[in-house]
Amino acid sequence: MFEPGSFLYEAWAARYGLLAGLATTARLSGITIVIGSLIGILGGVALSYGPWPVRLLLRGYVDAVRGIPVLVLILFSYYGLALLGIQISPFTAGVVALGGFCGAHMSETVRGAIESIPIGQTEAGKAIGLTFWQRLRYVLLPQAIRRLLPPWVNTAVEMVKGTTLLSIIGVVELLLATQQTIARNYLVLQFYFAAGMLYVLVNFAISQLGALIERRTAHFRY
Amino acid sequence: MAQPLLRAIDVHKRFGATEVLKGIDLEVQQGEVVAIIGASGSGKTTFLRCINLLEEFHQGEIQVDGERIGYTEGTHRRLGETAISAQRAKIGMVFQSYNLFPHMTAEQNVTLGLIKVQKRPKAEAVETARRWLDRVGLSERRGHYPYQLSGGQQQRVAIARAVAMEPKLVLFDEVTSALDPELVAEVLAVMQDLAKSGMTMLVVSHEMLFVREVATRVVFMEGGRIAEQGPPDALLVNPKSERLATFLGRFHGVFR
Amino acid sequence: MTYQFNFDVIFRSFDKMLAGLWLGLWLAALSLAIGTVIGLLAAYGRQSRLAPLRAVVWTYVEIIRNCPILLLIFFVYFGLPELGIFFLGKIESFVITLSIYAGAYLCEVFRAGLASMPARYVEAAKAIGLRPVQRQVHVVLPVMFRITLPALSNNLISLFKDTSLAAAIAIPELTFVTRQINANTFRVMESWLTASALYLVTCYAIAWLLRRVERRYAVIR
Ligand SMILES: Nc1ncnc2c1ncn2[C@@H]1O[C@H](COP(=O)(O)OP(=O)(O)OP(=O)(O)O)[C@@H](O)[C@H]1O
Ligand SMILES: [Mg+2]
């Protein structure tokens, strides 16, 4: 079972590469989700309340990104940014593409969440004299965030899955690390299966966590 | 007479092409409790919302404590966001649908304005909130979230939220009409208590018994205008106009 | 830094790009068709009285929805031959993968559709004496498809965008073709801008078409 050529032996032999790949996947997912969420909150607020030129610009960005496959965004970013003369790593190009992708989706989600809050909340905030930013900070965003949670978790799972596309431009994340391992030991089924299960476990855990928090905060919604 | 606390002069308001307020003139003195009655669609809500600057109006002016609100002096240009917020803070408003903030406890609902708008220290705000929640009979419930409270309790929290800021004037828009009948009395009792303490109140209500007992003056609105006004006993028992008589006919048995 | 745009080379290969786009549309449509069958069976499986069947379907849906599609593509394309399944070409292998993937998402769509089916339709069907299978075929399924139409069109658009991943196993759809043009001509901006525009226009055209279908078949619940 542990002789050379067995799955466990080969997995142990490749452990550093695989773990490094896993770490890269985690780092990529974390960074893009954070960037995407930041863009999403700013973009969503601006889509709801911004002056019309800003809204128009953002609408263009959001709708364009949502109509183009992520892989095309990634390849465009990878080959395109290099054109600008910047020495750019595949990792950075990938973060730009995935972060921009995540941000567009989050902007739309945040806008929807804000606009689903009853108008009475804004009016009650106005009635006690809160300014626009105070209403946003204390009344609207806290409620929007509770509504956002389920779609946010979905997006997070999509981003973890989406990081695998960066293997195509040579970022050695878990999928590419797995393929490099397979190239050495030809254990195709076993290694793809193991990597797949790892993704499934992580993403399943994220979804369950989201569902749990959602149940906890369900009361606070109208 | 002293300077009125609220003075509305020829207020006009349109929604698109339809004119909803067709020139409202009204003066309310310090300490008065003015009830506004009138048929559905006569513009009662719209008038209150103009006073609290939730709606813009197109002509005329509104003064609170001598200060013109919503628009710059002499012109009809809307003031900036900050100035409007500051003016709103001096006017309390209680809504038909309570509009409590669902993610905050009863106490947090009350302290939010005290801390963020009036910049009072947290301890003092909490102290004030507790005093008011006690006053509306909810000292036990201050840590509860709105979803844990009945409609009547939510509305009482909403009243505490409005009055805790010590506004010069409090607006009530049909605050009991979303409530189950058995919960109406507890809210009206709170309002009666506030009226007795000398608070200046402008109350839109269909609760005629309450209006007759608590109001110092009744204003009858009809088609975007004030059709008739006077002391409750005179106005409700001996309406001068045919229209008011018809309107009051619906509450038949309440007065005679 | 000034970039001189030159779309000439793109126009010379434009027919190839259009062929790639067309192929992608076919891949998506086929996968949606097969995925719908899988999704329907799975949705009924989720409602089954047999606990093991429910568990199998649940496992299928959770695994597929939480697994990166690119990994599934590689697993099927490189892995199945290891199991002795050699006769699959690239395209067959990709369509199978995308169908299995779509099936898991569509299972959830149909499950929600069945759950939101107003009881009165089934009762009316019972009242006129339809037998269980007839009730499903003539009443439940048609109504359910109409209820789920918006979700189905979103899925078709997603699937169409996912066909770009076929480039990873060298299927000459639009993304693959564009990458070749990019490599051959070095016209980076032109090639990717053109590809993006083609995808955008197609996605919104599909959305527009399907919205018209939705409006035509809208059900009042
Ligand atoms: N946002 C709006 N847009 C267009 N018309 C409006 C709007 N709000 C109110 N109106 C119209 O203005 C008129 C007056 O409405 P308002 O709500 O002030 O009446 P009200 O006297 O409070 O009636 P009720 O007793 O039913 O509450 C109505 O005809 C209403 O349809
Ligand atoms: Mg009203």
From TrEMBL, chain A:
GO biological process, one term: amino acid transport
Cellular component terms per the entry's GO annotation: ATP-binding cassette (ABC) transporter complex
Segments crossing the lipid bilayer: 28-49, 70-88, 189-213
Top-level taxon of the source organism: Bacteria
Domain ABC transmembrane type-1: 22-210
Keyword set, alphabetical order: Amino-acid transport, Cell membrane, Membrane, Transmembrane, Transmembrane helix, Transport
InterPro entries: AA_ABC_transptr_permease_3TM, ArtM/GltK/GlnP/TcyL/YhdX-like, MetI-like, MetI-like_sf
Keyword Transcription: no
Any one Pfam family match given in the protein's UniProt record, by short name: BPD_transp_1
GO molecular function terms listed in the Swiss-Prot or TrEMBL record: transmembrane transporter activity
Coiled coil: none
PROSITE patterns referenced in this protein's UniProt entry, alphabetically: ABC_TM1
Subcellular location: Cell inner membrane; Cell membrane
Membrane-topology descriptor: Multi-pass membrane protein
Family per similarity comment: Belongs to the binding-protein-dependent transport system permease family. HisMQ subfamily.
Role noted for this protein: Part of the binding-protein-dependent transport system for glutamine; probably responsible for the translocation of the substrate across the membrane.
NCBIfam families, per database record: HEQRo_perm_3TM
Name assigned to this protein: Amino acid ABC transporter permease
Organism the protein comes from: Vineibacter terrae
Taxonomic lineage from the root: Bacteria, Pseudomonadati, Pseudomonadota, Alphaproteobacteria, Hyphomicrobiales
Automatic annotation (TrEMBL), chain B:
Domain ABC transporter: 6-248
Pfam families in the record: ABC_tran
InterPro entries: AAA+_ATPase (IPR003593), ABC_ATPase_HisP-typ (IPR030679), ABC_transporter-like_ATP-bd (IPR003439), ABC_transporter-like_CS (IPR017871), MetN_ABC_transporter-like (IPR050086), P-loop_NTPase (IPR027417)
PROSITE patterns from the UniProt entry: ABC_TRANSPORTER_1 (PS00211), ABC_TRANSPORTER_2 (PS50893)
Keyword annotations from UniProtKB, A to Z: Amino-acid transport, ATP-binding, Cell membrane, Membrane, Nucleotide-binding, Transport
Mode of membrane association: Peripheral membrane protein
Cellular component, GO, one term: plasma membrane
Principal location class: membrane
Alphabetized GO MF terms: ABC-type amino acid transporter activity; ATP binding; ATP hydrolysis activity
Localization annotation: Cell membrane
Assigned protein family: Belongs to the ABC transporter superfamily.
Name this protein carries in UniProt: Amino acid ABC transporter ATP-binding protein
Species this chain originates from: Vineibacter terrae
